[in-house]
Amino acid sequence: MTTQTLVHAKTRTVTYGIIGCGMMGQEHLRNIALLDDTAIGAIFEPDAGMRAAARALAPKAQFVNSVEALLEVADLDCLLIASPNFRHLEQLQAIAARRPLPVLVEKPLFTDLSQLTQIDAFAASYPAPVWVAMEYRYMPPVAKLIQQAQAVTGGIKMLTIQEHRFPFLDKVGGWNRFNDQTGGTFVEKCCHFFDLMRVLLQSDPVRVMASGGQAVNHLDEVLGGRRPDIFDHGYVIVDFANGARAMLELCMFAEGARFQEQISAIGPLGKIEAFVPGPGRFWPEDLGPAPTPEVIISPRHPKGPRLEPVPVDPVLLEAGDHNGSTYYQHKRFLELLRGSRHDAEVSLADGRWAVLMGLAAQRSMETGTSVPLASLT
C-alpha cells in the first residue's frame, strides 16, 4: 500500500469488501460495525441463506455474484477473505491479478503442501499488506499471557496448549468435514495454536511428532456420498530451534468442560497459565453466568500462585465466539490501513509456518513417524 493510500484512508471512512459471509464472515461484520469510521462496501457470498444473514447485518452493502465483480466495486479500501479454506489461495491470486488491495485473510493461508510454491510466489510479489487472521493471539487472557510470559518464566522451556471443545459446527455443504477442503483438523483448527507456539517461544519449529485420529465425531454422517474423514482428537509435540518444547492436546468431543482452552508456559523462574471459556452462547443458562477468563501466575520463589480474572466486554462477547479477539484484531488492522502501524502483525510468513506445522502434524499422525519441518520445504 502506498503512502498516499495510507494518508487518504486515515482521513475518511475505511470501506471493506468481504469475500465469504458464513459463520465467521458474519462475526467479522458484527465486529467491524463496532469500530468508528468503517463501512461494508460490497459482499460476495454465494449461499442464499448466508447471504440473507449477511444482508441483515450489512444492509447498505452491495451484494455481487463473484470475486471479480466485487473487485470492480469502486471505493474499497481493503478486502476480507472469510471463505472456506480451500478457496483462500485462488482468491488471493485473483485479487493479485486484478486489484491488489490490503487484505485480511482468514486462517489457514493454504491447505495443501502442493500449494507452497504458489503461496511463496504470491508473498514475493504482492504489493500491499496481507494480514493473516489469527484471532487467538488477541483473546484478552491469551494476550496477557503473551505479554507477561517471558518475565514470569524467565524464558519458556515448556509450553502446553489444551483445547477441549465442541465438534465442528455445520457449515455450508459440510465443507469442514473433509481433509481435502480444510487441510485437516490440525491445519483448519490448530494453526491458531501453532502460531501461538512460535509467538510465545520466539523460535521456529524443527520437528513434529503427533498421534491422533477420528474416534467419535461425524462417524455416521454421509455428505454428497462421502463419509467425513476429519480428525477429532490428537496430541502434537513440537521441538523448537532454541531447545524449547511445546505440546498441543486437542479433543473435539469435550464441550462439557468449564474452560475451552488452557495454556501453560513454564521456565526457570515460574509458570503462567491462561484459562479461556468457550463461546458464551453454548453455556447453559441453568449453570449461571459463564466462566470469566483467568490468568494464573505461579512463581517458584517465593511460592505463591496468584489468580487474575480477565473479564471481557460483554458487547464484544455478543459480537462473536472468540472472546472479543476479532474486534481487537480489526482495531490493529485498521491501524495498518490508517498508517499508524507499518506492517501486518500476523504476516504471510506467520501464516505459512502455522500451516506447515499443521501439515507436519497430520503427516505424523498418518505415518506414525516424526516429521522434520525441513522435509516439507
Description:
This protein is an alpha/beta fold and 377 residues long. It contains 13 helices and 15 strands. The strands form two sheets. The protein has a nine-stranded mixed beta sheet. The chain has a six-stranded parallel beta sheet with strand order 3-2-1-4-5-6, sandwiched between helices. Strand 9 (233-240) and strand 10 form a beta hairpin. The longest helix is centred in the C-terminal third of the chain and has 20 residues, at 348-367. It starts with a helix and ends in a 5-residue tail after the last strand.
Outline the fold blueprint.
Elements: H1 3-10, E1 14-19, H2 23-32, E2 38-44, H3 48-57, E3 62-64, H4 67-71, E4 78-81, H5 88-98, E5 103-106, H6 116-125, E6 130-133, H7 140-153, E7 158-164, H8 179-182, H9 185-188, H10 191-201, E8 205-213, E9 233-240, E10 245-251, E11 261-266, E12 270-276, E13 294-299, E14 306-309, H11 314-318, H12 325-338, H13 348-367, E15 371-372
Parallel strand pairs: 1-2, 1-4, 2-3, 4-5, 5-6, 7-10
Antiparallel strand pairs: 7-11, 8-9, 8-15, 9-10, 11-12, 12-13, 13-14
